[in-house]
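ok so I'm stuck.
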Amino acid sequence: MAKITLDTLAHSYLDDPQSPEDFALQELNHDWVDGEAYALLGPSGCGKSTLLNIISGLLVPSHGRVLFDGKDVTHLPTADRNIAQVFQFPVVYDTMTVRQNLAFPLRNRKLPQSEIEERVARVGRMIDMEDVLDRRAAGLTADAKQKISLGRGMVRDDVNALLFDEPLTVIDPHMKWELRTQLKKLHHDFGHTMIYVTHDQTEALTFADKVVVMHDGRVVQIGTPDELFERPGHTFVGYFIGSPGMNLFDAEIDGTKARIAGTQFDLGTGYPLKGGKVKIGVRPEYIRLGDHGLPARVTRVEDVGRHKIVRLDLGGQEVSAIVGEGASVPDGGTHVQFVEGGVNVYEDEWRVAPEGGDAPLATKKEAA
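replied:
not stuck anymore, here's the structure
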């Protein structure tokens, strides 16, 4: 295992980049703590795989350094970084059996045969392939081959880091859950530094200790799943995480008062704003319907089983609210209120902390 340091790291695929827009990866400084599990989360083209390939050595960055435990490995090839990487599509040796594929990295390290057999048997159980260990990989399905790739990454316990690049794309939904659970157990048991690239928020939030959210080549927030949900550091994080995502309202703020769609309400605290464009963000979970507040009109109700998603029109903007399965929903006109502690304020898309600082996360959860 290793602490991975990214020092003023940036990358452009152009020979002569002239502006920030020319960079696939904007400048980044960060320490990936030894033994933690991270998820790189964001839409396609946001820079996730570029960053992962720089860490693994498949790509040399245009600018900055990569360090493992303080050692500069920026120009070291992948083989000399002692990492295991699992790609989006399966990479297996078709002429070998499943057992031989799993044992391959261990044989290269000349481990004792008894240890190889024990590790292969353990990983075979983890990926639910005990019964086909002696079958050739050539005859297996794509998702079975990907399980072999995952197993080959998990079979070693001497790596600096385990890197996963959208590894569950070809896996069926039930097996995705099983494999995520096994990856979490592997991390708990052996403490590997793990970095997991995905565009799926469920995968990221259920796998990682810390989630790194990327947007347009930039890291916009690094935090725990709770932090990303309760206090999105950028409007993109609020929009991208959650289902439905955060409601964002154009707003005016004067002291502790805010105005949305012509209606004023009390925020309860002030915000140190600098004169930029202001938005207020409220998650659907923190919106209540009632007989006072901001006037709105119910446009439709979506019953998704455990709760209902109520869509409303508030001053021409669609708003989403989540209510209990048994809750009554007015037909037509109503009002929306924001749960105390459930409001986030943004200036030029970045979150502004309230004067006096944030309340503990638990306070918001209890209020909700």
